[in-house]
Fold this protein.
Amino acid sequence: MTNDRSNNDAAEIKTFFDDYAEDFSSIYKEDEKKRSAFNKAMDKLYRKDIEIRFDATIALTEKDSIKSVLDIGCGPGHFVVKFLEQGKDVTALDIAPSMLEITKQRVDSMQINSKFETILADYAEYEFANKFDAVCVMGFFDYVQEPVKILKKLLTETNKELYLYFPDNKGWLAWQRKIRYKLRNCPLYLYSKDYLDACLKEADCFHLAEIRDTDRGYYVIIRK
């Protein structure tokens, strides 16, 4: 398979999220890392879409027809925990070791009866031997230089449903995020609605897609 991003990009993304793991985890749920009053205010004002896409995904995987879930860019495992609580077989993949370690710690504290596996890898470079009923891809396309290639790969590895998120390129929040990531040497890719539509069409899945506009991006459900 052709590499979707340079080795340098992958290394910078890995470094960024290894350093960011605890702070990122606390956005979803305060655990070891407490949120400051300022960050809590920012969460309430500007991070509503995190809650929107989280709740939407968990509602979609609740149905009995979804037996197995792949979580790409699983981060600190908040989606993983919910999938396991639903009784799904879960595979969690991330490029950052510290993110997977937080996920493993969360799962170790649970009583589960389903299968659970972690994979430390760049999804663009990893080949699966099996397909999954559903694939969760949140906070991943932000770091993908060529999204069409990834969309095509996802379609070959999914039996039923894909849950995807694409960050919007409009507004001052997108602007400040670009600057913040540039300062930390982490590549970042944002999407206009027209560009998203074009990517879905080129990957031959636009006709399968439901696109929901959130506060700061687009939540996309692809049903095969």
